[in-house]
């Protein structure tokens, strides 16, 4: 079976360098998710990973000389100036689209696709696609959790034998399920004449065979049935004989004592009560009532007099009025602000207006917390509170990442 090699370059200089202001990226979690999803696929033995941590510019040249990769995957920060790698001094170093395109024009003869899992990497992906044929980039900022989800789902589909186009669609569907605000962020670009839907890195998926039917139990042969019946009859006869002997021994038919005479206790019992010795059952004693011919009197149960029970309403006694229960859920008008705020925040996030979207979501969270205290068991309030809190967390992460990228770009300029 043909094998493919995925060469991974991971770099996080904005948080690992001295004085780094950006939050630490989950690069190790991304690589672990990629390997985990591949191990659960049909062609898990056909995909090999070559990971280079804290990648520098020289590491790209060294790795491409050592390994011929079918897929090149970059994971880290990105910006308008290019991908952010680690410089020789340990600080951030941006590599632009022109440099990446020239790199793959020299080493990318065997490379089928390049994945740039970083923010604002679409211009670099378009330049690389003109050389390699196919590349994936992002048109805006992408959160760390969404990047991990996209990478795991993409390589899972590749390891199942799907095409690059189908794998990209599955990865975007995974984002729509877990991170709906960022499902349109990744973009697949291809050179003219290259169709990602027909670009298959591994053989097509294997057709699943139906599970074999369980074998039908055949009846035993006739000789075995007859033998089993005979054995059962013999065992029953033996049990009956042993039971009869034991019963007779208990009734006084035990063997004589050492002097050859019957045991006195048993003999005396045989003379006084022959019926008990022979095992005959005593006639049943008639009930006391049959001796006189009279039927026993049944005294009626008299209940003590007292006030009527309060467990159920009595005639002439009014029922205790019950207090009306408070409503469990607020009405539709009270909760209408939450979906509207969520939709407006998504629109602002898509336009890149992160701070207004975050303020809108925080205000909605405060109102929902007040409703949660008024309606503690309301399922609609809890559900909307959970959705808006998750979206606010993603927007807040995007704001922090965007601020770190802008700071890195300011240093580069």
TrEMBL record:
<feature type="compositionally biased region" description="Basic and acidic residues">
    <location>
        <begin position="320"/>
        <end position="331"/>
    </location>
</feature>
<feature type="domain" description="CHAT">
    <location>
        <begin position="31"/>
        <end position="175"/>
    </location>
</feature>
<dbReference type="Pfam" id="PF12770">
    <property type="entry name" value="CHAT"/>
</dbReference>
<protein>
    <recommendedName>
        <fullName>CHAT domain-containing protein</fullName>
    </recommendedName>
</protein>
<dbReference type="InterPro" id="IPR024983">
    <property type="entry name" value="CHAT_dom"/>
</dbReference>
<feature type="compositionally biased region" description="Low complexity">
    <location>
        <begin position="308"/>
        <end position="318"/>
    </location>
</feature>
<feature type="region of interest" description="Disordered">
    <location>
        <begin position="254"/>
        <end position="333"/>
    </location>
</feature>
<feature type="compositionally biased region" description="Low complexity">
    <location>
        <begin position="262"/>
        <end position="272"/>
    </location>
</feature>
């Amino acid at each position: 079976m043909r094998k493919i090699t995925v060469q991974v370059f991971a770099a996080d200089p904005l948080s690992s360098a001295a004085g780094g202001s950006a939050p630490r990226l989950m690069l190790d979690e991304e690589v672990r998710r990629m390997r985990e999803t591949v191990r659960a696929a049909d062609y898990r033995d056909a995909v090999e990973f070559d990971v280079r941590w804290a990648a520098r510019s020289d590491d790209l040249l060294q790795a491409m000389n050592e390994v011929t990769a079918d897929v090149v995957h970059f994971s880290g920060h990105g910006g308008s100036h290019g991908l952010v790698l680690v410089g020789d001094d340990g600080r951030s170093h941006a590599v632009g689209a022109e440099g990446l395109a020239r790199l793959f024009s020299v080493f990318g003869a065997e490379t089928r696709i390049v994945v740039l899992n970083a923010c604002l990497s679409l211009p670099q992906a378009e330049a690389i696609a003109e050389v390699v044929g196919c590349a994936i980039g992002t048109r805006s900022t992408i959160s760390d959790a969404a990047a991990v989800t996209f990478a795991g789902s993409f390589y899972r589909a590749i390891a199942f034998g799907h095409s690059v186009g189908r794998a990209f669609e599955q990865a975007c569907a995974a984002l729509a399920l877990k991170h709906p605000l960022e499902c349109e962020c990744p973009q697949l670009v291809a050179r003219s004449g290259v169709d990602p839907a027909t670009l298959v890195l591994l053989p097509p998926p294997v057709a699943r065979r139906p599970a074999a039917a369980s074998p039908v139990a055949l009846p035993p042969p006739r000789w075995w049935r007859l033998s089993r019946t005979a054995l059962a009859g013999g065992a029953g006869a033996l049990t009956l004989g042993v039971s009869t002997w034991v019963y007779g021994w208990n009734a006084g038919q035990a063997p004589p004592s050492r002097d050859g005479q019957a045991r006195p206790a048993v003999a005396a019992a045989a003379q006084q009560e022959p019926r008990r010795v022979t095992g005959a059952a005593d006639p049943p004693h008639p009930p006391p009532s049959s001796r006189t011919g009279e039927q026993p009197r049944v005294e009626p149960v008299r209940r003590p007099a007292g006030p009527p029970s309060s467990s159920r309403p009595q005639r002439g006694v009014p029922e205790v009025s019950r207090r009306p229960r408070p409503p469990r859920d607020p009405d539709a008008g009270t909760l209408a602000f939450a979906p509207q705020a969520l939709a407006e925040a998504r629109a602002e996030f898509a336009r890149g207006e992160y701070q207004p979207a975050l303020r809108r979501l925080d205000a909605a969270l405060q109102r929902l917390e007040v409703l949660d205290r008024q309606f503690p068991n309301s399922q609609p309030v809890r559900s909307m509170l959970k959705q808006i809190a998750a979206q606010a967390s993603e927007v807040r992460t995007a704001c922090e990442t965007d601020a770190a990228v802008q700071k890195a770009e300011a240093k580069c300029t």
